[in-house]
Amino acid sequence: MDLYKQADLRHPHRKTNRPPDEFIWIQEFMKQTNQKDFIHLSADQAERIDYFKLESFGKIMTINIEAPVMYCNAKALLRKMLEEIISQKKVAMIIQRWDRCTYRFGIICLVAFATQEKTYLIPVLQNCQLVTKIIKFVCASPVILKIVPDSRTIVPFVFRQFQTEIIGLVDLAETHYFVTSDHPEERGKDLYYLVNYYCRKEIDSLLDFADWSLSYHNVELQSFVVNKARSTIQSFQSIKAIENEKGNYKLQQLLDNTLSQKMKRLSKLVNIKKSEDVFSCKDLQTLVGREPTENEVTLYSSMIPFFTDIAKHFDVKVQDIITNNQMADLVKVKRPTTVQVITNMFTASKYLQTRLPEIVNVINSVLPKPDHNVTITQEMEIDSDECNDLEVIQDVLSEKCATPSWADAKDGNSNAEAPVTVKMPSVSVIVSRPAAPYDPNRTCSSCGEIGHFKRNCQNGWFLNPFKLTREQLTKRKKKRGGRKVREQRQAHQTVPETTSKNFQC
Q1: What percent of the chain has pLDDT above 90?
Q2: 106/167 same-domain check
Q3: Does 211 share its domain with 290?
Q4: Quick one: which of 56, 52, 57, 74 has its CA closest to 65?
Q5: Number of domains present in the structure of the chain
Q6: What is the pTM of this model?
Q7: Containing domain of residue 68, as a range?
Q8: What are phi and psi of 7, to 5 degrees?
C-alpha cells in the first residue's frame, strides 16, 4: 500500500497537514526495526528532511574494501571493522546528527571510527540492530581507547540513542586544557584550534553545523566526517609526540588518570573478567569442592582484584602469588582471623610478606560476624503495661495447662499428669513516666514548681481518652467547663432578686 494512503487511513484528520513522504518512511522503518518511540518529529521538523531518502543513501560512496575509507553498510563489513578496531585498541569516534538544533528529536545518522590505518563510516539507520550492538561493544569496552573532540557533543547523544556509556574516553578539549595549563591564554580552545595548532590543517567548521537534509546529496558531509575523524586521531598522536619531545608527560598522566577513573566505575564483575584467565566464579565451586556459600562468594570476588593489583605491582602472574589450594583455604577461612593464620597459609610466598595485615583487614571487613559471637550489651527492659500483660498470660497459662477435669473422673487412674506451671522471669519494671532528678535550676512551666520540667510534670496529667473506660469518659464529660456549663452553674449559684424580696417579706 502507498505510504500516503497509509497516512490517510491512520490519520484521517491530518489530510490537510500531512507530513511528507520521507518522514512517513522513516517512521515505518523504525517500526519495522522494533525501535518504538525512537523518533517523534513535528510537521515543521519533518519539512526540513523532505529530501531525505535512505534508499539512495548507499549510492553516495562506493564500497571499496581496500580503500582507506570503508563504507560499512553490510554485515560482513561491520564484522570486519569490529575485528580491526579490536586489534588497534585505539580509535577516534565522531558522530553526525541530521539536524543541528534537535537535541530531543535529532538522531544520529553517521558514526565514524578512525584508526591509524583506516577510517570507517557507518550509516546507523541501515542494519540498525547490528550497528547498535557493535557501537555498544566498542563504547563499553575498557580495552579500546576512545578519542573524541568534545565529549559534550558526543556522550549525551550516544547515551540517549544507544543506551551506553563511553568507558576509556579521552576528550581532546580536556586534553588541550590539561596540556596548556602553563599558558592560560590558550585555554578553552576546541578541536579546530587543536588541528590547526598541532597538524597545521584548516577545517571548515561550518559543515559541523550544517543541516543533514541539505548536505547529504553532496559528498561534503561524508568527507567532513572522515576528515574530522582523521584529524582527531592525528591530533592525539601529534600531542603525544610533542609531549614526548619536550619531556613533559602530562598527556600520559591524563590518560592514566582517565583510564583509572573509568575502571574504578566498573562493577566487580569487570574486575573478575580481568583476571578470568587465572580464576573465575565458575572455578569457585571446583576450588571449594561443594556449592559455595554467600560469604565465600563475597570473599572470593573481593580478594581477586586485591591479588591482581599485587601481581601488576610486581609484574608477575597471579599464579606466582597464590595457588589454587591457597585460594581454597583462604575462601574457607572463618572470621575473625588473625595474622598468624594467614601467615601459615602464605609462608612460601615472598610477595605477600608485607601485605598480610591488608589481607586480614579485607577478610574481617567483608565477612559478617558469626551469631555465637554476639555479645549482649544491654539488659532487656519491660514496660509496666507489658509486665501486667505477662502476669495475665501467666495466669491464663496456669489455668490452661492444669490437670483436665476428665482426668479426675476416671477411676483408678494414677497416671494423671501433674499440673504444669509456667515460671516467668523476674524483670525490672520501668515506670512509664519517671520524674526528673531534683535540680534547683529547673522550673516547671505547667505547675510552677521547682525541680522538674513540663515534660516530666506529674501534677495534673491529661489522660488519653482512647484508653479510658466508659465510666471514666462519663466522669470526664461531667467535669467539662464549656460556655453552656458555665452558664448553667452561674444560674444555679446566683439567687434572683425577686425571690430574696419575697423572702424578706
Answers
A1: 0
A2: yes
A3: no
A4: 74
A5: 3
A6: 0.35
A7: 64-262
A8: -65, -35
Residue 151 CA: distances (Å) to CA of 93, 94, 172, 227, 239: 10, 10, 8, 18, 18
Instruction: Identify the residue whose cell numbers are 506451671.
Output: 421
Residues 6+ apart with CB under 8 A from 96: 108, 109, 110, 111, 112, 212, 221, 225
* Residue 187 and residue 318 share a domain: no
Residue with cell 419575697: 502
User: How many other C-beta atoms lie within 10 A of the C-beta of residue 404?
Assistant: 12
The answer to whether residue 495 sits within a structural domain is no
Average pLDDT over residues 19-23: 41
Sign of CA dihedral 80, 86, 90, 94: positive
CATH number for position 316: 1.10.150.80
Regarding whether 239 and 90 lie in a shared domain, the answer is: yes
Alpha-carbon span 500 to 504, nearest angstrom:
6
Instruction: Name the residue among 189, 199, 188 with its Cα closest to residue 232.
Output: 199
The CATH number that applies at residue 105 is 3.30.420.10
Name, of 28-37, 41-50, 331-340, the range with top average pLDDT.
331-340
Residue 340 lies in a domain: yes
CA distance 260 to 263: 5
**Are residues 183 and 299 both part of a single domain?**
no
The answer on 354 and 318 residing in a single domain is yes
Q: What is the DSSP string of 474-499?
A: HHHHHT---HHHHHHHHHHHSPPHHH
The rounded distance, in Å, linking the Cα atoms of 264 and 190 is 28
Task: Quote the Cα angle for 5-8-14, to 5°.
Answer: 145
Report pLDDT for 218.
Answer: 42
Q: Which of 229, 232, 243, 92 is nearest to 180 (CA)?
A: 243
Q: Looking at 240, 262, 284, which one is the last position of a domain?
A: 262
pLDDT tens per residue across span 87-146: 887 788 888 776 544 444 467 778 888 887 788 888 887 778 888 888 888 888 877 888
pLDDT range class, residue 346, cuts 50, 70, 90: confident
**218 lies in some domain:** yes
Which residues sit opposite 429 in a β-bridge?
382
Q: Decide which of 262, 279, 306 is a domain's last residue.
A: 262
Q: Report residue 254: phi and psi, to 5°.
A: -65, -40
User: Across-strand partners of 110?
Assistant: 96, 123
Higher pLDDT, residue 89 or 403: 89
Contacts 24+ apart (CB under 8 A), 210-213: 210/100, 211/48, 211/98, 211/99, 211/100, 212/49, 212/52, 212/96, 212/97, 212/98, 212/99, 212/109, 213/48, 213/49, 213/50, 213/51, 213/52, 213/98, 213/99
Q: Domain for residue 57, yes or no?
A: no
